[in-house]
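Please fill in the sequence for the structure shown.

STRUCTURE ENCODING:
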């Protein structure tokens, strides 16, 4: 994907988004993919003290929708709102632009009086998604304004889902399957006519072996590890220069428009100094994911960097190990490798192996592993998993959303 420049929000000088994001609410962002497992949209759900329908407003107001989605189509939970009071959805500065946002409503809760207000929102340019219990028929009037129907296939009776899909076959309504948590369920939904998919198995690449890691990717992984170990510039240069193609890529990145104030890069050493360790780690993550293995979505880079930033911010101290294990977990997932196997491939040290296992070097609970467990649970929208990590869901949500925005800024700095 090409990361387009966000129109906002305002960032600090080091590329980090200023201010609190969620204000104490829990907002869960989930990726929606197509039949080829390519990311096509995001779906936001929120929950806090029974007021979930208002949780997204402060998030989008503080951070900006673009910073969380990079302009992709966005399904927003609209259930529970006063449909008639949609000032934020019309005129002036819109928090949720109609050309990007799909308003998702609970089909079991929409009354006849709500239809007129939903039609007005649709006339303003919004698409409407009906979240539908498969056992219930789609109300004809609601069906008439639905652009999408979303079904949680993980909890609905398969026969009911089949009947619902058959009833919509041939219409212009798009079918979205949520709760797609196994590859078999993904395949079943695909055969049944669903177009978009969200769940634990939706975006997972096939599991590969370590032989799938190309030499340039291996060197990029070693570069991430060397940066975590605080290797000096000469050591980094020796590592990168072992692959001429990787060296050229790095110099090209340093010559991007971001560094246009220079007179041009004339050496690998100069490129390493100019880019700095923070930018280098992002660049190395990109090279590790996209440097040779086919079928890896470019969006995996964004996820990996966001994980690294989140893990680092959830631990006390410098957080170098937490940042690195977050990056490498994203790389491992993007490559379709178990994290321990990836760590073996690069001969990672005991601290990283311990973090992957959720412990410290002595075998006790480890802060880096705790942070990684919380971040992975957040990505699954698993509040119980976040709680089991020992961290507060509100804090993890706030840190992760800000990390997404910051990661996008850093990727833009590299021209990605």
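FILLED IN BY: designer on duty
SEQUENCE:
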């Amino acid at each position: 994907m090409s990361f387009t420049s966000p129109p906002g929000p305002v960032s600090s000088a080091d590329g980090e988004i200023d201010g609190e994001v969620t204000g104490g609410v829990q907002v869960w962002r989930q990726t929606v993919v197509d039949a080829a497992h390519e990311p096509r949209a995001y779906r936001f759900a929120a929950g806090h003290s029974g007021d979930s329908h208002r949780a997204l407003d402060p998030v989008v107001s503080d951070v900006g929708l673009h910073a969380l989605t990079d302009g992709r189509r966005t399904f927003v939970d609209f259930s529970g709102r006063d449909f008639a009071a949609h000032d934020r959805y019309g005129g002036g500065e819109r928090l949720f632009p109609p050309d990007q946002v799909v308003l998702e409503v609970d089909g079991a809760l929409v009354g006849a009086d709500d239809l007129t207000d939903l039609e007005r929102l649709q006339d303003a340019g919004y698409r409407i998604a009906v979240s539908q219990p498969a056992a219930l028929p789609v109300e004809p009037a609601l069906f008439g304004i639905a652009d999408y129907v979303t079904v949680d296939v993980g909890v609905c009776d398969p026969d009911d889902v089949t009947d619902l899909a058959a009833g919509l076959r041939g219409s212009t309504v798009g079918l979205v399957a949520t709760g797609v948590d196994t590859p078999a369920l993904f395949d079943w939904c695909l055969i049944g006519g669903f177009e978009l998919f969200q769940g634990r198995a939706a975006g997972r690449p096939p599991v590969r072996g370590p032989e799938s890691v190309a030499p340039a990717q291996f060197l990029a992984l070693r570069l991430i590890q060397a940066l975590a170990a605080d290797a000096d510039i000469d050591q980094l240069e020796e590592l990168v220069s072992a692959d001429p193609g990787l060296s050229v890529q790095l110099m090209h990145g340093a010559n991007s428009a971001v560094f246009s104030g220079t007179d041009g890069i004339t050496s690998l050493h100069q490129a390493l100094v100019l880019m700095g360790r923070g930018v280098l780690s992002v660049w190395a993550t990109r090279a590790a994911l996209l440097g040779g293995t086919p079928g890896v979505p470019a969006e995996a880079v964004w996820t990996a960097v966001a994980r690294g930033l989140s893990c680092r911010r959830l631990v006390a101290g410098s957080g170098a190990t937490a940042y690195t294990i977050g990056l490498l977990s994203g790389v491992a997932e993007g490559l379709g490798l178990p994290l321990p196997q990836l760590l073996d491939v690069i001969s990672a040290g005991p601290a990283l192996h311990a973090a992957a296992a959720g412990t410290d070097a002595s075998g006790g609970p480890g802060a880096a592993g705790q942070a990684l467990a919380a971040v992975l649970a957040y990505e699954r929208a698993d509040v119980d998993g976040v709680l089991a990590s020992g961290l507060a869901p509100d804090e993890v949500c706030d840190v992760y959303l800000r990390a997404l925005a910051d990661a996008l800024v850093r990727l833009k700095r590299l021209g990605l």
